Amino acid sequence: MFIAGVVHWIGQQAPNGIDLQDRPLAAFAFAHLKVITESGGSVLGETLIRYGDAPLSAEATWLSAWGFGVPKVIAARLARTETAF
Q1: Alpha carbon distance 28, 5 (integer Å)
Q2: Are 63 and 35 in contact (CB under 8 A)?
Q3: 84 vs 11, 52, 54, 58, 62, CA distance in Å?
Q4: Mean pLDDT across the stretch 11-36?
Q5: pTM for the whole structure
Q6: What average pLDDT does this structure show over 2-9?
Q7: In sequence order, what DSSP letters do the residues of 1-65 get, joined into one string?
Q8: Confidence of residue 83 (pLDDT cuts 50, 70, 90)
Q9: Which of 44, 67, 78, 84 counts the highest number of beta carbons within 10 A?
């Protein structure tokens, strides 16, 4: 398990590190690696983002956990309610 997050970003193509730099998290929770691998997602690299209220340690006992499709649902809801940056 790790702390996963959906970055608040919308665009026509997959983002790169510059696109995501200093963007906030739209949501976060504990997740298994399969949240990424079983949903067709991928790890695109690393960049500096705004963590907001997300814990910096995976020892947070108050944090919820996501099932495999949850980040995709959150991203789809975000895409329906926002316009591209």
Answers
A1: 4
A2: no
A3: 5, 21, 24, 31, 32
A4: 90
A5: 0.78
A6: 89
A7: -EEEEEES---SS---HHHHTTPBEEEEEEE-THHHHTTT---------B-TT--SSTT-TT--B
A8: low
A9: 78
